[in-house]
Specification:
Elements lengths: L1 E7 L5 E6 L2 H9 L13 E3 L14 H13 L3 E4 L2 H9 L8 E3 L3 H9 L19
Parallel strand pairs: 4-5
Antiparallel strand pairs: 1-2, 1-3
The chain binds zinc ion.
Length: 133
C-alpha cells in the first residue's frame, strides 16, 4: 500500500488516499473513482510534494536529551557507586536530603525501587566528573 497526497483541482483541497500501487491510482483516477472528500469532484491529481528538508534549528534529539540531562544534574551531586547507599540513607532520613546521581547495579536499583526509594534511570550514561581519560 502506498499513500498519496492528492489535491482537488476544483476546490483545491488536499487529502490523502491509499492505493495498492501507483498504477492502481492511475487506474482508479482514470475511472473517476478517486474523488475529493469535500466536493466529490473526480478532478484530482497528486499534490506537489514538499521536499522533506529538516527544519533549521530543530537540532539533534540526542543533543537535546543531553542538554536536558545536564540541566537536570546541575544541582545533583555525583556519588559514584555509593549511589544505592546514599539514596537509601536520604530516603530513610539518615542524612541531609540532596539530589544525587551515580551508578548502581541492576540488583541495587531493583532493591531501591522495591523499598520505595524514588530513583529513576538517566536517559544517557554519565561521565563521572572525577574520571580521568
Ligand atoms: Zn474538492
Amino acid at each position: 500500500m502506498i499513500v498519496f497526497d492528492l489535491q482537488c483541482r476544483d476546490g483545491g483541497e488536499t487529502f490523502e488516499a491509499w492505493f495498492r500501487s501507483s498504477a492502481d491510482f492511475d487506474e482508479q483516477r482514470g475511472a473517476g473513482l478517486v474523488q475529493c472528500p469535500v466536493c466529490q469532484s473526480a478532478n484530482v491529481a497528486k499534490a506537489p510534494m514538499a521536499p522533506s528538508v529538516p527544519r533549521k534549528g530543530a537540532g539533534n534529539p540526542l543533543a537535546k536529551l543531553a542538554a536536558m540531562q545536564a540541566e537536570l544534574l546541575k544541582s545533583s551531586r555525583w556519588v559514584g557507586n555509593q549511589f544505592a547507599d546514599t539514596a537509601r540513607k536520604i530516603h530513610n532520613g539518615e542524612i541531609e536530603p540532596e539530589q544525587v546521581h551515580g551508578s548502581a547495579t541492576m540488583e541495587q536499583a531493583k532493591s531501591l525501587v522495591d523499598d520505595g526509594v524514588p530513583v529513576a534511570p538517566l536517559p544517557l550514561p554519565v561521565t563521572p566528573p572525577n574520571q580521568v581519560n
